[in-house]
Amino acid sequence: MGDLIDRLRAGLPDEAILADPDVTASYANDMASFCPAGAPAVVVLPRTVEQVRHVMRTATALRVPVVPQGARTGLSGAANASDGCIVLSLTKMDRILEIDPVDRVAVVEPGVVNAALSRAVAERGLYYPPDPSSWEQCTIGGNIGTGSGGLCCVKYGVTAEYVLGLEVVLADGRLLRTGRRTAKGVAGYDLTRLLVGSEGSLGIVVRAVLALKPAPPAQLALVAEFGSAEAACAAVCDIMAGGHVPSLLELMDGTTVRAVNAMTSMGLPESTEALLLAAFDTPDPAADLAAVGELCTAAGATQVVPAEDAAESEMLLQARRMALPALERVSTATMIDDVCVPRGRLAAMLDGVAAIARKHDLTIGVCAHAGDGNTHPVVCFDAADPEESGRARESFDEIMALGLELGGTITGEHGVGVLKKEWLARELGPVGVEMQRGIKAVFDPLGILNPGKVF
Amino acid sequence: MGDLIDRLRAGLPDEAILADPDVTASYANDMASFCPAGAPAVVVLPRTVEQVRHVMRTATALRVPVVPQGARTGLSGAANASDGCIVLSLTKMDRILEIDPVDRVAVVEPGVVNAALSRAVAERGLYYPPDPSSWEQCTIGGNIGTGSGGLCCVKYGVTAEYVLGLEVVLADGRLLRTGRRTAKGVAGYDLTRLLVGSEGSLGIVVRAVLALKPAPPAQLALVAEFGSAEAACAAVCDIMAGGHVPSLLELMDGTTVRAVNAMTSMGLPESTEALLLAAFDTPDPAADLAAVGELCTAAGATQVVPAEDAAESEMLLQARRMALPALERVSTATMIDDVCVPRGRLAAMLDGVAAIARKHDLTIGVCAHAGDGNTHPVVCFDAADPEESGRARESFDEIMALGLELGGTITGEHGVGVLKKEWLARELGPVGVEMQRGIKAVFDPLGILNPGKVF
């Protein structure tokens, strides 16, 4: 280990190397539950591409595993340290290098915080859509590693759709440029997209060219209350089949509504079994909301409340923002799942999750990016009670099994990490796993990049 | 060869095997110029996934190269036969298996013609955007193999953005399922996107889940005439920087305008050095066109003519549709290039192409998907004159070099195939090529899938 740190010092300034075990221990985890983490040998905080290359050359020379990290807001353990690893934190590489309104691109380093980029481009009349809940903390590099989504995806898609090109330091320190700055391009295999969502297992992203959109008008929202989750899901299907393009279409189940009521003074009706939030950022959002409100009423909504303006819309969306904090107060711990199903199967998914909650005698609240069929069942449990913790883990797995059974995926936007790696093989099948492992070996023949993650 | 055909017969009906050399020769080429093609040993036309698997198992057993083909409308030689190969035509696998308006997906076989799918989904109020010029002939499988674009891309993006999941027969006949049917998903590496644009070099696509959009309103167009290409390109930049989202933004240079005039009775002003066509499919397209028309005038347009209705818009777009046929009449042959540059460099690109035309004393007309920076310089030459053909090939290469120099790519939407494979290494660099070859070896260790293409 002395050798490791000496070698790192040869290409990194002192302040970029943290070796005090008390300090390095604080870099061991991201925000996932139930994911083991080891003790890093060292944490490095490079500021330049050349420094990252030096770290990777050193890691290759000494066969030391490297765990790349952004803001560690991930929910799958993909950024958890392994014993004796180099934690490679990209948070100091946080420059926005360029914003170009003609090409509609931004060029950024990986440590740029999502919100910082969003605000910087907004000042130029532009829009970077991906908006994970952690957007005030999470970094673009982490978003790229995970393939993050957010509330906007129902209209604007996920992170992958905004990454045009990358600069990547490979396991052996070589620099790979992928993709392009242009709007289109089909020269060779799409390595850019291969790297997005690869959770640091193929290379270290050190620069990204991101596509931007023109800033849309402020969105206007409505909230609709339903007496059953089934009716709310039917409304979601009717809205999407009706050709509407909401900028947000979120669902909270009755469990979540009651948790929010218990925490706040929002006074949502206790009889509500599902709350639907829809928003439009179109030229005439009031007209779109009126049409969607009618579909909600026809599907059985007990009440439909459209906002009058942007400020009122923000108030309506507060209930959604409170969902996770409210569920976190139900017990001492939560596990948040991320199963995405075809939206036509959303009702079956919610029904199945409710059955799993009853079977295991647990509180499981569901918030969903309903327009995408992406559910976040939140399993609440007492971490001090091993038996209950066991039931929580079982129900978490049963939720993934249900998602696969309904034609869905085990992860819509949070990634595989440590948390779901045993499940990945079930989703991909043996041929898929073999191809993916083959690709991993091409990029990382020594297996030093984030080992024990994804596969 | 007797052995090859006997083995193929064991898993294919007689009518699915064409072995008459006069017949197989007609499958030797796609529509690219200057691309060598060999003589196929046999052409197979399977109708089922199982038959495709049989073909690939046979090819692997006998180490026979396989060249997959759709409608052979490609422009890079990617579908050209190699000597002694099996041509695997997917054109008989042409069923639309499902159109689902709630999930907004279509499930199709690879031989479905683009226009057939577009019309079928339009009947359900849906929209499959990718619209290559050959859309009445080309197949979805070919579009996926090439990563095709079209006129709509400036607003709706390219084929890659509409492919959610694939079923792929691997080189050894195993079946690989990639991706998903859901709106989102990040389980493992994105093999779907890796396969899109891989030109049949990684596997045979036998089924695709495609994302659909709600059908937009009919688009309304305007045409603007400019005294210089530079002014037209400035207008393009102003339109995009101004936050407009046209559904089409096309440019024709003066050479192209004069060729169209010579062929048709459109009577475009001969002094026109660039024609810009813009269209909007927004709720209020007339307002958007008015704003864009003002930007064109400010940038120096000599005349701006907005259409009154959809029928008049179609008439305006006729000039663009005539561009290629008109340039094809300038001499006995044409080569169509496909260089995409950052849109801020479009003027430099057009200026450079004009200089290349002067230098080589050739007619080179440029049509461009200007909103994407994707230019199609069309080199006109006399194929019977070897010296002139040489100059044509040289100018074609100089256009690619210019594109790379301007920060662009050698191919925006036509692919690499045989035509540009020597250029691919220049764009990707040695590290990129090494990674791509590594991936190829994972999928196709024997090198039987479309050998001699891409790399």
UniProtKB/TrEMBL annotation, chains A, B:
<dbReference type="Pfam" id="PF02913">
    <property type="entry name" value="FAD-oxidase_C"/>
</dbReference>
<dbReference type="InterPro" id="IPR004113">
    <property type="entry name" value="FAD-bd_oxidored_4_C"/>
</dbReference>
<dbReference type="Pfam" id="PF01565">
    <property type="entry name" value="FAD_binding_4"/>
</dbReference>
<dbReference type="InterPro" id="IPR016164">
    <property type="entry name" value="FAD-linked_Oxase-like_C"/>
</dbReference>
<dbReference type="InterPro" id="IPR036318">
    <property type="entry name" value="FAD-bd_PCMH-like_sf"/>
</dbReference>
<protein>
    <submittedName>
        <fullName>Glycolate oxidase</fullName>
    </submittedName>
</protein>
<feature type="domain" description="FAD-binding PCMH-type">
    <location>
        <begin position="36"/>
        <end position="215"/>
    </location>
</feature>
<dbReference type="InterPro" id="IPR016169">
    <property type="entry name" value="FAD-bd_PCMH_sub2"/>
</dbReference>
<keyword id="KW-0274">FAD</keyword>
<dbReference type="GO" id="GO:0071949">
    <property type="term" value="F:FAD binding"/>
</dbReference>
<dbReference type="InterPro" id="IPR006094">
    <property type="entry name" value="Oxid_FAD_bind_N"/>
</dbReference>
<dbReference type="InterPro" id="IPR016171">
    <property type="entry name" value="Vanillyl_alc_oxidase_C-sub2"/>
</dbReference>
<comment type="similarity">
    <text>Belongs to the FAD-binding oxidoreductase/transferase type 4 family.</text>
</comment>
<keyword id="KW-0560">Oxidoreductase</keyword>
<dbReference type="InterPro" id="IPR051914">
    <property type="entry name" value="FAD-linked_OxidoTrans_Type4"/>
</dbReference>
<dbReference type="InterPro" id="IPR016166">
    <property type="entry name" value="FAD-bd_PCMH"/>
</dbReference>
<dbReference type="GO" id="GO:0016491">
    <property type="term" value="F:oxidoreductase activity"/>
</dbReference>
<keyword id="KW-0285">Flavoprotein</keyword>
